[in-house]
Sequence to fold (358 residues):
Amino acid sequence: MESYKKTLKTIKTICDKKAFSEMDMYLIGGISAAINADIDLYRNNDDIDLMVNIKDLSQLIELLEKSGYDVKDKRGVLTGNFMNLEGSFIPVDHELNADTKQKDLLGIGIFLFERKEDFVIISSYYYDEREKCYVETQRILPEELFDLMYNGEEIEYKGMHVKCQSKEYTYVSKSNCIREKDKLDASVLEKTIDDDAKRVIRRINYLQKRIQQYSILRNRKGQIISSSKIPDFEEKVEAFVSQIILSNEGKSIEEIKKIILDNEYIRKNMEQDEDIRNIAELIRDMPFSENIQLSIKQIVHDYLYRDESSKGRKIDSSEVGSGVIEEFAEVSEIDETQKMIALHTKEKLDEKGVTINE
Fold:
């Protein structure tokens, strides 16, 4: 533990004050693996990362400065992150960087989120060398998903009480990475993943398909040039189905259905993703109307939003650039075919024992 004194002292500096514990703030990244597994630190950290509610940012900066840190806001046009000409993202900065001259403390990277009524907004920033402009990407998460990702309950670790990224989300995010240090973090948590944790992981994977994303382009003065919605899971499925239909004009509904389900990309994802597997089985069993594209769109939507907590809603925004997010209810006037598809989806999932709210 001698070599990790700086890491532990930095965590203690962040978490050992009452004001810090009262904030909506979480330790994130690889260090969450050791904390959740309740083991000694096992690898060095370059810095400590925090996910902080934007409403607590001013208070956090004040407390960090009192602890000897100098905080620089790297959002927007000050970010060093960039997308190169080949389309690869090169991370350089956190949203805010807290640096210190104290040799016994690590630097701190700060990421921000904003809570709304029942969803959470997380933004990231980079310079796009291809577009020659700065880009803000807003990710809009269901509140339930965010709360599964970040554990609001304090964990006792080495005599400290900390709030951090959940073990389930840490495992999900690290398992999908290729860096050796991320693989190590995932392996540390693997032995802690029991049946309850697996249920939480399935729920996280399911809710991640509801994430909405918007891209906001800014000039060098930070002024908004344009904003656009990044295709979500539903829209990607719709585009995929549309392409299949256009490429197979004149074929019957059953033939098109078979082409979709036999597609190599779909079959590969069915093996890895329980939700895609369930949706594919619903498509296979569905007695389609003449409009196969609309029928599949309805199946996907009903699957993703069938649990009562979401009320069939998606999040939309007409003013993403200013952060004004609006909710809208699902259109209630649907024809009899769509009602039949919705009922069929529910019945088939009930038969399979698939419960979205576990």
Observations:
- Residues 2-227 form a domain with the Beta Polymerase; domain 2 fold (CATH 3.30.460.40).
